[in-house]
Every structure is written in structure tokens, then in C-alpha cells.
Amino acid sequence: MIGSAAKSMKHKFYEEKNVLPLCVNEGCFNNVAVREWKNWSFKSECHSCMNARKEGRDISGVIRHKKICCENIDGRLGFKCPVHPSEWDFFQESLDMDHLDGNHFNNVPENVDTYCKLCHFRKSKEEGDWDRHKGSARKIEVV
Question: Which among 37, 85, 125, 131 could bridge 6 via Cys, Cβ 3.0 to 4.6 Å?
């Protein structure tokens, strides 16, 4: 069930001629799943791709972009992922997709990396990704 604030923000989203981004997976042309309308928060994948990934199924013609482990295992963020690769079978739902340029509408494979929640949190905190004054911050006026 969608609350009144969420309904209002969904209406505003479309009223402003916004469109949902496409699923990040190559070969999939579905819109992304909506995480939360009141903040215009979207997943990087569509429902079909998310469900197939979680069930371990492939979709013909679709190349899955979300990795099975944290891409920061190589230390690309300036620190190494604390989760050992042998442990990833137990942490699949703890992986996030990070939009490198901060723009969640730029939902293309080249702009998205897979990080565990620990690395994603630290990266976001250190780079100020939550700063509403940052240039890439979503400019949403709540109605």
C-alpha cells in the first residue's frame, strides 16, 4: 500500500516529466523497481532481473551486472573490503550497486559498481554522498 506522501511524490515525479531509468542489466529494457516514491529512490534493476538473480536463474539475452562479491576487494576505494571472498556465499543480499557519478538516472553498467554494505557506507560517508548540497544530490522539493 502506498501512503499519501508517496502518492503525492509519485504524481510530482511524472508531472515534472521524469521517467524511470531502465534496468542496468544489458539486454533488459524494463524500468527499474521503485524502492520508495517519497524520496524518488530507485533500485538499479527491474523486478524481473532482481527476482531471477535472487533465485539463481538466468534470463535469456540479459547480462547481469551486479557482481557476486564486493568489487572493492582490490582496494579501489583506498581501503580493502573487510569481507573475505570465501564468505560471499552468505552475504549476497548485503551487496549494493553504487552509482559512481551519484546520478541514479545514469543507470548504465559503466557507472555502477558492486560494493558490500560496509564498503558502500564508508565510501559514501568519506565522499559526502549524503550531503544534500553536493552537486549530484537529488533536488527534490517535498510536496
Answer: 37
User: Is the alpha carbon torsion for 58, 63, 66, 69 positive or negative?
Assistant: positive
Cell of 40: 524518488
- The values of phi and psi at residue 39, to 5°, are -115, 10
Report phi then psi at 134, rounded to 5. Answer: -65, 145
Q: Which residue ranges make up each domain of the chain?
A: 4-127
Give the C-alpha distances (Å, rounded to integers) separating 23 from 6, 10, 58: 22, 19, 15
83/116 Cα distance (integer angstroms): 8
Say how far apart CA 27 and CA 7 lie, in whole Å: 31
